[in-house]
Amino acid sequence: MNTVLDSSLDPLLDPSRYYSLVNWHTANREISAKIITELMYEELLNPEIVDNHYTLNFEPNIRYSFEVKNRHYFNFYRVVSASLTCFIDDKETPSIDAYHLIGCINKHLNVQPDTQAHAIREFSNTLLGDMHQLGSKRLSNAELLQQDEITIESQLVAHPWIIANKGRLGFSYQDYIHHAPEMGNTVNLLWLAVDKKHAQFNAIAALNYTQLINEELSASDRARFDALIASKGQTPSHYFYMPVHPWQWNNEIVSLFTPDIVNMNIILLGESHDTYQPQQSIRTLSNKTSPKKRYVKMPISILNTSVYRGLPSERVKVAPFLSDWLLNLVEKDDFLRNKTKLILLGEIASINFDHPIYSTMSNIPYQFNEKLAVIWRESIHTKIEAAERCIPLSSLMHRDVNNESFLKAIIDASGLTTQQWINQFLKAMLEPLLHMLYKYGFVFSPHGQNAMIILKDNIPTRLAVKDFVDDANLCVDPLEEHDSLPDELEDILEYIEGPILIQWIQSGLFVCVFRYLTEILEDDFNYSSDLFWESVYLTIRQYQQGFPELEERFDAFDLMRPVFPKLCLNRVRLLDDGYKDKTERPTAAVASMLQNPLFIAAQKYQQQEQEQEKNLQPSPYETV
Ligand SMILES: Nc1ncnc2c1ncn2[C@@H]1O[C@H](COP(=O)(O)OP(=O)(O)OP(=O)(O)O)[C@@H](O)[C@H]1O
Ligand SMILES: [Mg+2]
Predict the structure, then answer these.
(1) Which of 208, 263, 324, 526 shows a CA-CA span of 20 to 30 A to 553?
(2) Residue 607 CA to ligand 2 centre (angstroms)
(3) pTM for this model (two decimals)
(4) Is it true that domain 11-117 has CATH number 3.30.420.10?
(5) 535 alpha carbon – ligand 2 mean position (Å)
(6) Where are the beta strands (DSSP E) in 245-320?
(7) CA-158 nearest atom, ligand 1
(8) Domain ranges of the chain
(9) Which residue among 156, 159, 300 has the greatest number of ligand 1 atoms within 8 angstroms of its CB, and so is best to mutate?
């Protein structure tokens, strides 16, 4: 059979469907504007400014000129992409070429040659993805308002801050088409039987392995898999069944785990019947056939925005214990359970299978011990009522096929004013996060991909959060609320000083989400960022007034300080770590300090209050 001809017959894999000069130019212009915007924010590019005309001068005789929109907070300036021009020897280039810009920046910042080379691949993948997205079916807001969250996720543009946001180093073109979230394709998962002697299964107290598998695999799939094991002379009850992402099986497991496969510690069972679609995070998939079945998070050992997307064995093992602790905590807390109605998508079960050799080695790069595991996570569809729908937090920054704001469509459909909607949104979003922080010294990582907003009639009512075990952080101070933590977790969780702990809210939510949300509010609603941050301040204050007994914690986790550190995500890649293999996952770099918008809002309110108090004081003349 002629395999070249076979693959050329697959219309899915013909890139020319997406290749278009117009879209290529658009993708180049947009990413170039984003690169300059975010590298100015991270203080790596310092343009000359004359009358709101910004110029970056690069050697030899190259300059990029542009206008910006001043975003008023966080020292943040958005490059207006349509205004971006490039001059070489004083002649304007006919189009914007992102590779040219990246080349100039590499030289200017003295980026290491190996980093430069790898970065080109990350940017190439990102540009290719952007062009595909521009050439794909993009939905209008009217359509999006009718869609489920997984369809909405497939329309989003990926990480708003990281400049090479579709890097996925390790994906072939075929992988990209099949597995990238923005392609919106479904996939069947492969299932493995893993010998119980070599694998670890863990679950929350209310669940056992048999129950889980009976719920996740149909009776016919189970019977087929049991028969296959028996046909190999093995006993099905000696094995756990676990899904593996087909990419991981083909690219990592087959060759790296050959001894286990040969010895039948791992047996390939084949595909199950359900189809799955990747969420924004790529490695977590939603069940399309039965949306109430659990999400499945599996390693895909590609490098995408910051880290290799494997699953660290020690964290996989404790994920259900942490979920149990968190789910119980919410259950017992009247405010969380009845007032905020916070939804936690529990990581209710996991299986880990250590690599026989890497797991015995020390100081090797982290990604080698993250190859074969699975976490089952509760689906949002088991948590919301018929009248509710959920949208990813990141979708609030989305613009549809007509470049119109999705947020605007939601607010219009809600019948509320912008201010009313924002108040509802901030209450739903912040109150549970604040309560977890102040009462339990616990933070999630509430960035746009880890949080979902629940809407009723398009009005935000509550929050759903996910992805705990990777990013769960507790304060270092011994709070009595931590006494109930299971022993298994104590060595695994990060214990962090108060001022650092709150960075997950400051950087994860305020900078990584609200920084962009306020842009939409300014541009599409003419709603000022001052008003937005005042609303955030008032929401926090209102919460605090309801819990005077936690006052000491408001100081320990002080969200109102004048400044907080500016973390930099792109700087780490370009200058600090490059693409070097490191033992530990990279951490964000710190540039300067950011003025805290909440401090500014607090000052303003305190001043107003003092003035009001003064006005209320009886006049000395009247008392005479
Ligand atoms: N708007 C967004 N904000 C943050 N991350 C995003 C966004 N859109 C896409 N992503 C991608 O989602 C992932 C976020 O990383 P994170 O560690 O929170 O999730 P994960 O552990 O991979 O998966 P999950 O949240 O499903 O458990 C990255 O791969 C990132 O590139
Ligand atoms: Mg996540």
Answers:
(1) 324
(2) 40
(3) 0.95
(4) no
(5) 27
(6) 266-278, 284-287, 295-297, 300-304, 307-309
(7) 8
(8) 11-117, 186-381, 391-599
(9) 159
